[in-house]
Amino acid sequence: MKLTKAIISTLVTLLLIWALQTKHGDLPPLGKLLNPATGFWQNAESKNITANSSVKLKGLYGKIVIKYDENRIPHVFAENDHDLYFAQGYVTAADRLWQMDIQTRSASGRLSEIVGPKALELDRYHRRMGMVYGAENTLAECMKDPQVKEALEAYTAGVNAYIHNLPAKHYPLEFKLLDYAPEDFKPINCALVLKLMSETLAGGSDDFAMTNTLKLFGPKITNELFPDRAFKEEPVIPKGTKWNFKALPLPPASKGFIADMTDTIKTKPPVEGIGSNNWVVAGSRSANGYPILANDPHLDLSYPSIWYQIQLTAPGVNVYGVSIPGTPTVIIGYNQKIGWGVTNVDADVLDWYQVNFKDLSKNEYWYDGRWVPVKKRIEAIKIRGQATVYDTVLYTRQGPVVYQNASLKPSKLGAARIVPVGDALRWIAHDPSLEFKTFYLLNRGKNYDDYREALKYFSAPAQNFIFASVDKDIAITPNGKFPLKYRDQGKFILDGSDPADEWQGWIPPEQNPTVKNPAQGYLSSANQPSTDETYPYYINWRFASYQRAKRIDDRLGAMHKATADSLRALQNDNYSIFAQDILPTMIDGVDETKLDEKQKSVYRQIKNWNREYTAYNAGPTIFENWWANLYKAIWADDFAVKGALDVQLKWPSNYRTVQLLVTQQQSRWYDDTRTMGVETRDYLIQKTFEATVDSLYKHYGSPGKSWQWGVVKGSHISHLGKVEGLGSGEFDADGSGGVVNALSETHGPSWRMIVQFGPTVQGYGVFPGGESGNPGSFFYDNMFRTWKNGELNPLLFLQNPADQQKHITSTLTINNK
Amino acid sequence: MLFFIILIAGLIASFVLPWWVVAIISFLAALLIAKSSAHAFWSAFAAIFIVWVAMALFKSVPNNHILATRMAHVFPLGGHWLILLLITGIIGGLVAGMAAMSAHLIRRAAGKQ
Fold first, then answer.
1. How does pLDDT run across A438-468, given as a tens digit for each residue?
2. The listed CATH number (1.10.150, 1.10.1400, 2.40.160, 1.10.3470) that belongs to domain A577-713
3. Residues 6+ apart with CB under 8 A from A760
4. Tens digit of pLDDT for each residue in A559-583?
5. Are B102 and A16 in contact (CB < 8 Å)?
6. A-B interface: how many C-beta pairs under 8 angstroms?
7. C-alpha–C-alpha distance, residues A302 and A750, integer Å
8. Interface probe, candidates B63, B94, B112, chain A, greatest A C-beta count within 10 A
């Protein structure tokens, strides 16, 4: 009896320890996580900051001094390039190690190693899209350039120096929650981060949906509903700008080929207004006679923050701005002489090619009149707690066949929706590239010529690079490696056997659209079409609508004696050009006498709305719902999936719909083909308004706070790993995807920057969150409120380590060991 | 006595050894000097409860409990960090207490008492 008791008690104790030491499903090992000696309590940072610290590390050529300011932004002073990027790697790892780890794991399809089989399809997707293949090609190119090679290797060494000196108790919190350890950083991780940007900004495609649409409606209607030029445009390069180069001839179009396919995943109406803004005013429009530059890239906001602010100083360079954790150099920023910013171009640099395999073994495919062998690449995907999965990916001369048969394509993975089964992917992100060189040179740039030289090296994702200099030059260049295509090449799925359907070389980089010092005295971009129709090359058939660009240009055109604060106000502008373009037609279409009292009151409210997307206003809530209902009433009968015909279609854009409503009282598109009667425009407007009022009452009760835009929108910033409690929670805020202040539910300005040139340059900036990626740090989200209120922090641009000591809270010195 | 031995040894060992070292310390100490199962369990429980709570507070107080509050949302405890602190103490105490009690029961089964 005594023995039994002893044995049971001992076993229970051992079992308890085992249970507390082991991860159960998504539940972290509680003993490891909660114990105060090595668990999460160790990640609680003290409010008392050590003023001076030093460390000795191997492999340095000189001494590094890092000054941390009151926002914990590091200002790095090094004696050479190597030490500079070593230090950047070191300080970035100190603040963002888990973010760097998880992002590169995700890009390279290695999440399953950490979280188990639930990430397998996502990993497989990333592998099969050729993310690692592309990163390998880019890295090989980078290693040929001595400056870029040094930067990548030094950065990597800096990250690893931090990891190797990091005791387990100080692992970032997320490593403890997910129960794994950091691994050595490699130069290819830098390239993977870049591929992740290409995936986000140049990884979309509607070729598949467009091809289905073409098959269903035929070419006449497809061209009518999906024109190459939008109803209203305001191109990046001002209309009428002359092209002073002799253009290459466009390649001839191939004989059209429409792939035969169907798909089972339902599509959604288009989401517009995801993008970015940048602009610059010339000295002629500014108060001090020097240019002012502004940029706010819009991304899926997250904690830890997407960007990491840093100042990098070494002989030949002194630059301030934001970097991306996992890559060296400053990506958006300024130095004493120049400033630059970026928005996405959305060039068509991702195309699909129908592959004709010889037989079911899929070892050969038809190309240019003969059978050509496929190349095979084997991807080994390790899975936590399970055997490794080996996945064979077929590569044709165009690229990977992402899903060679329908059973491979995951039905639940949203990202895979755009992939046509059986087709090969031609994607700019697979090509060797040297984007880091662009940033290396811009960081050191002194003038307009340096800017033009730097841009030559940039491949993808293509960006509208805006520029200003202390020499009072302003410029903008939609820039990247653009394939030379016949008009509309890649609007639909292409023929993988026809050489005429391949990319026929490149637009010469110096012939990318560009403009310098225009008479109007300002330049801007907001993801809209790059040029007017006179540009001799084809970049894409669809871009973001002109609405943000139009508002920015309207305001810049009226601006005189501009200051940094006038541009800050413009970054926070909530006025909707889209509402201005369509709301009058909608309001006129309603017959007020037919409305009941509730409807009348809502009608008066929307009629009086000032078209500002402010948080306290109910106008945007009414308008957004009404528009969505009207849009659906027009197109759903034709574009919603019909019965057995289960096809993914492209829906007409918002502005194509505006064109229809504004210019045509009668059209076949207004008629609901599912009903006996013939519907008209005004009938749809009236009915959708009434339905909107009903549904608003149903969802939000009587008009009041619950109808306010800020509440309805429910903006929030999630943790990168979607851990509940580590994000911002919901907050009321102005803005929407379609206005300049492009804060939607989850996307928004991920960095706001304004640079005022003058005898001394002064920058202002803020991002949502903070410099530290540690949820236990005071600097995890300390800048959130400033950002949410639309304010900016003056940026501290030090000239030497002893400069402006009153803003410095701590100093880290790194010496060679 | 048992309480103080475990308290001091547990505190020191926690800085260098894995968290479950508290089980080994409690086991060894109780094997030598525990008077009864209850004495073994509660001495070790109280000692390690106090050690863990004190160590957690040592980190959390200068942090204004920012992290503990966030973690009390992760878990979800409504953001009440004190509950998380208690759970921390109880887990440590339970492991130590069980180990100590097992030690005493083994000793008794071996007929040493």
1. 999 999 999 999 999 999 999 999 999 999 9
2. 1.10.1400
3. A336
4. 999 999 999 999 999 999 999 999 9
5. no
6. 123
7. 9
8. B63
